[in-house]
Amino acid sequence: MPKRKYKIAVVQLNLNDVAENNLKKCISWVKDAANKGAEVILLPELYSSHYFCQSEDVDNFALAEPLYSTSFIAFSELAKELGVVIIVPFFEKRMAGIYHNSAYIIDTDGTEAGLYRKMHIPDDPHFYEKFYFTPGDLGFQAIETKKGKIGTLICWDQWYPEAARITALKGAEVLFYPTAIGWHPKEKEQYGENQYGAWMNVMKGHAVANGVFVAAANRIGLEKYIEGTEGIQFWGASFIAGPQGEILAQASHDKEEILIAEVDLDLQENVRQNWPFFRDRRIDAFGDITKRAIDK
């Protein structure tokens, strides 16, 4: 029988460094999370480098790695050693000219339980991801692991209720969101509180609407590496929420931290029995959701 309770962790880090150092740092923090009892551990988006999408620069493609190379080898060995599931977000080189923003889901025996490729790709000031990433083609997934059935979505995906809904309908007990989001420093005073609040509220809404646990791992720190710009101040605030949107664990805006919370499937079932949103969905009336716009 699957476990009815298991512990998950999100790791919030400053990753403004070279790949080798970021890898060593993440391995150390994953070990710490496992020692604290975590059984499924999430790292932030694009863990191995600074957030290079602040500019459109072909030299940054050198940061990508082929499937099953450096990141997979290192974290596969670590997952097997620790007996944990690790979600590893990385910059995937699929072939010349095709790159993805991806995440391995590595099972407790070191095997690949699943691979997710980011579906929604933003193109905003200093978040120029469309230059680098081909949209994902593996769809939304609920992935069976030896700890639980989980779904992984990545950063910009977190704004889309359809992504959360489909992943939950496929059976995911937890939605994991590796993230790299922050403030433009000159906008923070005027817009910062609302931007951060919207980010957190939309994911809490996914938890409520789908009766699932939600875990988001963000990075921290000012990443300013392009001359003449203010960079991005990543706002941290990683969190884990329960199926009623309740905050189970919350990180600061500026410290490296591990958050741990328990996934309780009996609680999830009870919430869904009392708030039967899946039962009452009018799927017969939702056909227009697949249109870009509903024209008169």
Automatic annotation (TrEMBL):
InterPro entries: Aliph_Amidase/BUP, C-N_Hydrolase, C-N_Hydrolase_sf
Pfam families, sorted: CN_hydrolase
Domain CN hydrolase stretches: 6-265
Record GO terms (molecular function): acyltransferase activity; N-carbamoylputrescine amidase activity
Alphabetical keyword list: Acyltransferase, Hydrolase, Transferase
Any GO BP annotation: putrescine biosynthetic process from arginine
Top-level taxon of origin: Bacteria
PANTHER family: BETA-UREIDOPROPIONASE (PTHR43674:SF2), NITRILASE C965.09-RELATED (PTHR43674)
Name of the protein: Acyltransferase
Organism name: Flavobacterium pectinovorum
